[in-house]
Specification:
alpha+beta, seven-stranded antiparallel sheet, six-stranded antiparallel sheet, 13 strands
Length: 282
């Protein structure tokens, strides 16, 4: 059905936007403290995530973990949970609302309601130079969900099992001794590590393009609480063509955990859960 354009259409479009969540009062991380603690930290664990698969790992509060590209351009899908409560998990939507569509140094990964507290803080990003390109693309997004077998089946009738959703499900199940049916509801929207994405200017569609990541690039976090993580090395490789594929060139990702000298974090404590009283007006 055709519809006439209102006479004040341009005036309506020209109304200035308002930032939904001004962050001037958002608690800020003490990056100076974290960096000083990191300088003397020692590596205590590492996990190599195979191509087209996922692995789980643990990070105690007050420790650091680093995700590194080790052989070739590769993106990863990251899930985080509170180590003692899978219901407290990374909330990509609220993280996006607070920090924007793509994350970098100083941004934090926030947990789901009713906790809504920092789970991890990004302390180092070797791709922070990328910014936003001429297509509107950026790196480390919190807008995409994760490649999954359900959308693949919906769009093409496929039964593809090594997409990130299934990889994360298997990794969590294996790590905790759960069945796949028990683990799957805990898998959630991700931080797309190293992935370069955006929205097209004309149709508003989510796009991906070849990641700028190269071997040696890394993204490093400070664990604000005890964490259980799972990382999938996406079957799309650098996501320059497909994100669920047995033909894309894929590479492993390395997760390393570093323990600082406890004295270096003197005065620091894990953040408390959100202070809202949960009365909801009753």
């Amino acid at each position: 059905m055709s519809r006439s354009v209102p006479s004040d259409a341009e005036a309506r479009r020209a109304i200035a936007p308002v930032i939904c969540y001004p962050t001037e009062t958002l608690p800020q991380p003490d990056l100076g403290l974290y960096r000083a603690a990191r300088a003397g930290a020692r590596r205590i664990a590492e996990t190599l995530v195979p191509p087209r698969d996922a692995r789980a790992f643990s990070v105690p509060a007050g420790h650091f973990f680093r995700i590194t590209s080790v052989e070739g351009p590769q993106v990863g899908d990251l899930n985080l949970w509170a180590a003692d409560d899978l219901a407290e998990r990374f909330y990509s939507g609220k993280t996006r609302a607070l920090h924007g569509t793509h994350l970098s140094t100083g941004d934090r990964l926030w947990s789901a309601f009713p906790h809504l507290r920092p789970m991890a803080t990004i302390v180092d990003d070797t791709l922070d130079w990328y910014g936003i390109d001429s297509f509107g693309g950026g790196v480390h997004d919190v807008i995409g969900t994760r490649c999954d077998p359900y959308t693949g089946n919906l769009l093409s009738g496929s039964q593809y099992h090594h997409c990130c959703h299934s990889n994360l499900t298997r990794a969590l199940a294996d790590h905790l001794g759960l069945t796949l049916a028990e683990a799957e509801p805990h898998v959630h929207d991700v931080l797309n590590v190293f992935m370069c994405t955006g929205f097209t200017r004309d149709t508003g569609q989510y796009f991906m393009k070849a990641s700028p990541v190269r071997p040696g690039d890394h993204l490093e976090f400070f664990a604000e609480i005890d964490l259980l993580g799972a990382l999938s090395a996406c079957p799309g490789g650098d996501c320059s063509a497909e994100h669920s594929s047995d033909t894309s060139a894929c590479h492993p990702l390395l997760v390393e955990v570093f323990a600082p000298d406890p004295v270096a974090l003197s005065g620091w404590a894990p953040p408390a859960p959100n202070g809202y009283d949960r009365s909801h007006g009753r």
